[in-house]
Amino acid sequence: MIKTLWLDPGHGAYEKGGFDKGACAGGICEYKANLYTVFDLREEIKAGYCHCHHISLTRKKDVGEPLYKRMHLPKAGDFYISVHYNAFNRPAHGGELWVQSDLLHKFKHEFVDLNKRLKKVYEEQGYVWRGIKDASRWGTRGMYIERMKVPAILWEVGFLKWDFDKSDFDEQFGAVKGPELKEIIEGFAKSLYFSLLKKI
Ligand SMILES: [Zn+2]
After folding, report:
1. pLDDT tens track, the chain, 200 positions
2. Ligand 1 geometric centre to CA of 83 (Å)
3. pTM check: above 0.90
4. I want to staple 80 with a disulfide (CB 3.0 to 4.6 A). Which of 6, 66, 134, 171 is the partner?
5. Where are the domains of the chain?
């Protein structure tokens, strides 16, 4: 059983270089898209896909603590899920999941199963699943979950502009409104629970 399941809406903090909006494309930036996605993800997980005592968010507003502080919030027995979107200046599609190298090896079969489930979730909605990847092989972004002392994964939900854009989010209500995106978030919560979380 996980003590606290941390949901981290990536970006949305004052870092050394100024305010970190994350990637922006299709009329929306990551700091908002990630936050609204995490609000939905929290509701889905609460609905029965937790296997944890608590769910905590690393930020609940547009602006939160910088990354180095968030990384140290989880304690032994916790699990950390960071949520992001990709952006690219040419057409690029799909969601992907980055996993700490040690975690990926420890739960090898579980992640094979999770990969199959997520592929199905995405394809049923007409989207591309790019796979589960070893975070130690990804430059700076992979590094931060690699450096964390608790099990951590980083979900890139899809590409802003090419998969999801402003119309998929409701800024007035701070929520996800795209029906396919809602299905993907629910499918992610369910898949993660059945493949991995309930075994931890
Ligand atoms: Zn990001």
Report:
1. 999 999 999 999 999 999 999 999 999 999 999 999 999 999 999 999 999 999 999 999 999 999 999 999 999 999 999 999 999 999 999 999 999 999 999 999 999 999 999 999 999 999 999 999 999 988 765 679 999 999 999 999 999 999 999 999 999 999 999 999 999 999 999 999 999 999 98
2. 8
3. yes
4. 6
5. 2-199
Q: How far is the CA of 20 from the centre of ligand 1 (A)?
A: 9
Centroid of ligand 1 to alpha carbon of 107 (angstroms): 25
User: How is domain 2-199 classified at the CATH fold level?
Assistant: Aminopeptidase (3.40.630)
Ligand 1 centroid, distance to 192 Cα (angstroms): 20
How far apart are the CA of 24 and the centre of ligand 1, in A? Answer: 10
Distance in Å, CA 177 to ligand 1 centroid: 20
CA of 25 to the centre of ligand 1 (A): 12
CA of 118 from ligand 1 middle (Å) equals: 20
Rounded CA-CA distance 22/175 in Å is: 18
Ligand 1 centroid–CA 124 distance in Å is 25
State residue 139's pLDDT score.
73
